TrEMBL record:
Database matches in Pfam families: MAPEG (PF01124)
UniProt-annotated location(s): Membrane
PANTHER family from the UniProt entry: MICROSOMAL GLUTATHIONE S-TRANSFERASE (PTHR10250), MICROSOMAL GLUTATHIONE S-TRANSFERASE-RELATED (PTHR10250:SF15)
InterPro entries with a match to the protein in the record: MAPEG, MAPEG-like_dom_sf, Membr-assoc_MAPEG
Matches recorded under Gene3D superfamilies: Membrane associated eicosanoid/glutathione metabolism-like domain
Signal peptide annotation: none
Keyword Cell cycle set for record: no
Membrane topology note: Multi-pass membrane protein
Keyword list, A-Z: Membrane, Transmembrane, Transmembrane helix
Protein name: MAPEG family protein
Coiled coil: none
TM annotation in the entry: 105-128
Length: 132
């Protein structure tokens, strides 16, 4: 059983859910009614956080599970937890100003790249090992 990667998956989805709720709150606060997606720059930053996190989830979730399967569920979950922290730091920074998103982006990106690279190594190494 892969309890740790499963827990990280649920937490990542809960973070995304909260970011989605934040868009609804921002709509009310800045009086941006659907389907309008622009207007107040503060609202637009909240939307960008939610949209960018959705875009990143498409890469993150398969990378988390591939790494957990081919390398280690414990290490995969640890790197996944770092990704979540990075996304939270990204959101807090971006909500304040676009320039303040960089640290969170760097944390999440390094975690994601490690998950992707590790997955690739974990998949390819057993395939080429008999050839060596």
């Amino acid at each position: 059983m892969s309890y740790w990667p499963s827990l990280v998956t649920v937490i990542a989805l809960l973070v995304y859910f909260v970011l989605t709720l934040n868009v609804g709150r921002a709509r009310a606060k800045y009086k941006i009614m659907p389907p309008q997606m622009s207007g107040d720059p503060n609202f637009e930053r909240v939307v960008r956080v939610q949209q960018n996190t959705l875009e990143q989830l498409v890469l993150f979730l398969p990378a988390l599970w591939l790494f957990s399967e081919f390398i280690s569920p414990t290490w995969g979950a640890s790197l996944g937890a770092i990704w979540i922290i990075g996304r939270i730091v990204y959101a807090w920074g971006y909500y304040q100003a676009a320039e303040k998103r960089r640290l969170g982006f760097a944390i999440a990106s390094l975690s994601l790249l490690t998950l992707l690279g590790g997955s690739l190594v974990g998949i390819i190494f057993p395939l080429v090992q008999p050839l060596i």
